[in-house]
Amino acid sequence: MSAGPGEREREEPARDLEQLRALLLTPDRARIDALRERVEALEHMSVDALSDALPEAVRRRVGRDDKLSDALMTPVESALQTSVKRDPQPLIDAVSPVIGPAIRKAVSAAIRAMTRSLNQVLEDSLSPRGLAWRVEAWRTGRSFAEVALLHSLIYRVEQVFLIHRETGLLLAHAVAPEIHAQDADMVSAMLTAIRDFVHDSFAVGEEEGVEALQVGDLNVWVEHGPALVIAGVIRGNAPSSVRELLQDALAQVTADYRDAVRSFEGETAPFEGCRALLEPCLASHHESRRGRPYWAIGLLLIVVVAAVVYALTRPPPLPPPPPRETDLAAFRAYRARLEAEPGLVVVEAQEDPEGDGYTLSGLRDPLAPAPESLLEGTGLEPVRVHARWRGYVALHPAFVLTRAERALQPPAGVTISYADGRLALAGEAPRAWIDDARRIAAALPGVDALELAALVDTTQRGWDETVSWIERVALEFKNDIAKLSPDGLARLGEAKPRLVQLDQLARALGRAVVLEIVGNADETGTAERNAILRAERAEHVLRQLDGLRFTAVMLSPRPATDDDGAANTRTVRFRVLLADTP
Fold first, then answer.
1. Which residues contact 304 (CB under 8 A, 6 or more apart)?
2. 59-69: per-residue pLDDT in tens?
3. 166-179 b/e (C-beta count within 10 Å ≥ 16 → b)
4. What does the longest C-alpha to C-alpha distance in the chain come to?
5. What is the pTM of this model?
6. How far is CA 119 from each of CA 114, 127, 151, 330, 425, rounded to the nearest angstrom?
């Protein structure tokens, strides 16, 4: 049965609407269907599949960064706290296999140490040495333990300081137990001040420095690194292995804290962990003693004391007197020996009226041999000679030369000779020592003149060599440029240490120096432009030297004139003048 005309007219708009809906919603419907399938798949995913994927996901995340560990830290801590509150036994059962043996070992070690300490106390208290130590403690006002430690201690590193080399700031400080340490920052500042004093006073290079100091019973050993300095305070005589410990600790700190040292700007917090690296340097060593049969030693001591008392109280047997002629001949031989010895002058020699010996009086130079030593071989008994000697200064050439060598203390390579009142020096020595030699030689007895013709002044020679090198330097510039070329900058870097050396030599020689910085230009530009370039180039080099600190050298930039050599070049040269040189 076919539809009527009216029904067909109603079906056509409905069909068109369905077609339009299909055209508009088909893409979204496909996505909606896909999402529906995905949700249904997740709802049907099994717990086993999730358990298989979760460990691998955790492993990958932990390997990527620490965010998962940070996120789990709080819940894990809360879980442990809750578990311990509910029932601590499971956690105790888990850690007891590890902590139990450690506790037993620590207790056993403490008991052994206490036993050794008790044995040591008994030994020190009952032995003769212990009694002597107690007397010393009572006499000096110290405790017995301190006296015993000082006598049995071979060496002990009491403190270790880690210091920033450039600023002198204390970065870390380690102290041995039972040591009362002074203000560590003050000690660090004093060490830095001593280092600066040595550098300034003796013209020591930056790579050199003080390696050891002695203050009373303490020694301070210092090791220098490129950026750090480590110092150990040592009591006693330490072996060289302690210095190796300091060197190893300095190398370890330098390696572990390289970035912190490089970026150091006064903040010491990044170096708090250095103390663990310094503590191995706090080494010590005590005298090892074995048990002794003190009763036997005491008995032997009583026998020895009795023998000494008997020997001291028993009058010595008198030797039979020799014949008078033989005895007098021996005395005359002894007097002849004395008179022939330089530095000994016999003023009076006579026989005692009672006939029991001889009396001598005279003058003796401290460098002369002991008069008693000349008695050997004469046959004269020392007890029969009664001598009175007064000091004087002999002008014997050998004595004058010996006194000069002791007073001058010549450096290696310098020889001293003396003849006819003239003291001659030969070799090589710095100016400071030569000036001291002039002053000391003028006060030496027997020295009428000082000859220095054969002595080379190494300070003056260094001055001449340094000035010659500096005045040969030519700092190059490019055409019409007032800034140094790369080659010129490199050459200036080579010249800076020589300029610092020039200042040090000038101070050592007591000279005031003017260092002229002479700017040059070629003739490719106009005269006005070249004049400007000369002045600007000299000023540019002056600014490049701003970082250097001079005390005896004054920098003076100027443009080159016709009187200067190499004026027709694109360079800057140096000229060294004394302050009073025109």
1. none
2. 776 666 666 67
3. eebbbbbbbbbeee
4. 186
5. 0.39
6. 9, 12, 17, 63, 65
